[in-house]
Structures
1.
Amino acid sequence: MCPERGEHTLFETQRMRALLLIMVVALVLPLLAACGDDDDDDGDAAEPTATEQAAAPEEELTEATIGIVPVLIYGPVLLAHEKGYFEDYGIASELSPLAGGADMVTLTANGDFDFGIGGAGPAFFNAINRGVELTVIAPLHFERPPLATPLMVSKERYDSGELDSIEKLEGKKVSVNARGATEYWLDQALRQGGLTIEDIDLQELGFGDVAAALESGALDAAMLGEPLATQAEQNGIAVRLTDDFVSDFQPTFVFVNTSFAEENRDLVVNFLAAYLQGCRDLTGDDWANTENLEMLNRQTNVPADLIEDAARTYCEPNGEVNIDDLETLQEFFAARGLLDYEEMMDVESFVNTSYVEQALDLIGEYEE
């Protein structure tokens, strides 16, 4: 018996609804599954795609503030900064220029600088003796004849015979750029003529003002650092009275706040690894290549050709500190009455070679 028309219509309607429901479920289930992958019951995140991995940020660098004086003896630091060596070892290096002197010691000890680099002068020794936490971790530079900080006099007065020998400087006005390690340089130069630093009228004048002072007669002689020494010669203003009075002597060092170094050992080791890479780029015959000269020019504003002509300085590519030189400096300043103490400190007590040793494990020993 055939169904009535109304019954047939209801059946067809129910069938159509069932088919529609099946289609909706088929469309919605994949979407629900996709959502479940992003936030499933285990809390595991979906694996990033290759594009997402490439766009992921690099490891964050550790910031480090480095106290410097923007002159050529700081070449290892300047090149390590310019060439990205610090970044290679996870350090975002910030170079903070100073005129030099005691400020470098104070700012490093106080934590304003993470790394201080400068001469071991009276302020350095007096601070350590007072209990200020400072540790030497590496040397900065040393010199060999022809020295990069010679004793110079006016060319006019030299040519006239007025000041053509060291002996004639007795009682004369002779300058250093700052009280400290340069005083030792001057004393050693004067001893070649039978004088000492006590036999002259010691003055203090920044290297940048020396040439004009020699030309005007305001100074009789001066210690003058490169490249200004070569520039004064090329301009016919001054001549070198002597430039061979020391050899392989370390007057400048890298130092840190002792507690900071102990708490941030990896940072200190990585700093030294990068720093020594910069030093090695300046070691050997290739030190004055075009790339190095251009980078040093950017950091010091000294023309590249002048850097190439100037007497060079040297650095220790394995970071070996000469303890004897530190002892010599301490004794020299004590004899000059510039130290606040009488009993000499054991200089090895504030030198820590373990940081360099670890850095050498990273970069290997340098062999000539």
2.
Amino acid sequence: MNKKIILLLVSLGMILTACASGPQTLKVMTHDSFAMSEELKTAFEERNDVTLEIIASGDTGSALNKAILSKGNPIADVFYGVDNTFLNRALEEGIFEVYDSPVLDVIPDDFELDPQKRALPVDFGDVCLNYDRRYFDDLGLQPPLNLADLLKPEYEGLLVVTNPATSSPGLAFLLATIRQFGEDGYLVYWQGLKENDLLVVNDWETAYYSEFSRSGGSRPIVLSYASSPVFEVIYTDAPIDEPPTGIVYGDGACFRQVEFVGILDGTKQRGLAEKWVDFMLSTAFQEDIPLQMFVFPVNQNAQLDPAFTRHLVVPEMPAFVSPEDIAHNRERWIQEWTETVLR
């Protein structure tokens, strides 16, 4: 048979095989709280002729462990959700490939905690204490203004927080207290909270939906997020003009979490992975973030829903602990906290 005809038939066979196999698949590993609108998912798939497979892998720590265990032969192409409390561990394990996305030009440098551009910032949220406005109004009691206030006798038995060994907000709050009171003082502070009848539970859902007085519990101060009051307005059954909850946002009272995305080392879909990272940093995706995941965009061109701009309080001086310090001390800090508070 003529060689040109053979080559033509081979090429035609490759085309037919590609058509028969359909779009490629891009696997994105995330924590369980990841969410995006179906419209955006469809738009990305159609624009890039790809099928997205979202692999929810537990909380941030569990997802990171899975990514580390599959290093070099990853079970996904991209990993989203590692935050600044786990960032250094992810970087030290070398699970990400370098990618200098062009969209980083519209993201403030403050969010870029990895100068080598292996983990790229996607969103941020402030972990803060929330309080039940009605409870304090009914008693004529001033809500706490800062962390030190919580040691006062008038706040005895009012606070519920989450365990830093089992809860991402709990760890963030522990870090805020370390930043505020220092290595020499944070355990003294926690001992004072314990003596003031602190309640510790394992997860945010239990704290907010079972123990918080707004949900029928007995504790009017709960560890949550700066965005929680806004969502109380947006998702209420009956329209309300003001949030029923407030936040304690004195200097250093909140801890800012930043979440990152990275291309996993060893991916076979490098080109598509880059497109997905660019998409997550794009204005369209960034504007979708708040109503989907209750966190906020890092892209400075993204516009917030009017409800956010009307009711949101953004702490001006959130606590910051470097990813390096967290990585080197996390386990010790948690162990010391456990011995002080739970034993």
3.
Amino acid sequence: MFDNKKFYFLSGVPRSGNTLLGTILNQNKNISVTSNSIVSEMLYRVDLCKNEERSLNFLDKKSHYDVCKNIIPNYYKNWDSKIIIDRTPWGTPDNLNLLKKYCTNEIKIIVLLRPIEEVLASFIKWSQENPGNFLDRYTSIEEKCDSLIQYHGMVHQSLGSAHNLLKEENKKYALFVTYNELISDAQGVFQKIYKFLNIRPYKHNFQKLQQFSANGIVYDDKIHGNNLHKVKEDGIKKTTYCPEDYIPKRILEKYSTFNFWQTQI
């Protein structure tokens, strides 16, 4: 266990290589990239306690601040890595404000992005190949896509996070990486990440990969559906397919505005 950990953040759009990135970074024993994390929600809820009547009746600002400031370090105090990269949509306005108030070191957020057509098609392809998943509760392809994009949907918050971090005043906190960059030039991407985080470079193995784990824990994909976080163990490869093979063109066009980031990075 290390006393002086650094805490950085990963806020990628789902199906954009988050698990792949984490699997590779976790080859470096000094780094632990987390799974989809609950830490931001914990911090958000505790921070709200200051607005309850009992708090306002006898407001101890210093004690409340101390608790909030220590939520992230305490959650990861038994993780052995020096550097923790917590994965959640930390770039949303609420979450970024929490980091500004309570993060114990400089804020740095890695943002993974992928065209929305590919993101949605990847979800639909996965759901068809792995029946019994969370999307099966919806009948049509359009309903499934809507559930991902709508407010609080699995894709919605991460896109909101990216949108907020693309604001001029927030760009300083973020490193934007596209899925295509990660697949086609992994070595270059990891060099950028190490430079962004100011970490000594590490020689990663991009050809022989293991399934994602962090702090000795692995995903239980029965919760959302089998193989949602499965990594190709024989190296970095892009599965080539046409989004229109899985989603009608009119539905893809419906969501085209969510590619706002393509002209801004």
4.
Amino acid sequence: MQDEESLVRRAQKHDQEAFAQLYEEHFDRIYRYITLRIGDEMEAEDLTQQVFLNTLRSISSFRWKGIPFSAWLFRIAHNQVVDYFRKRKRTAVPLDEALASSDDNPQLVAEQKLDIEQILSASKQLTQAQREVISLRFASELSIAQVAEVMGKSQGAVKALQHSGIVALRKALSVTENEGKQRIR
């Protein structure tokens, strides 16, 4: 397999096969990131396609700076999500439970739905920046350096946001768990 840099350089020279390979390599992570951010699979598909159209239009302006190409793609995706929310003027983001599991076990599906609802409820207590870091780090599996590039922040700031976000999630989830145990009694 060719390295990413040569693929990008070929795509910059309008090599359709190279761009198609970049698309295939990055589509799922970009789609997952957008879906978790906006909570709508159909809209996420459209936005993901728009990310790649924007990428195709502007790939010639991409410059290597020691950061992976995917960080540039996630920055484009981030901007698409911001534009989406500006247009919708929404703050709450529902998550479609169908994304969580394709398992046919109803008990497992119900447990996962409850877990997702608890996480969504807990995540509402996070700042927008904390939610962004958690989504990029864990849903999109980006490194600290990549998240820093996407968000335009230092690595230290990303680490601090991740740490404070995880602490806040743990606290909120333990409160939710304790409330659930009290209701069962």
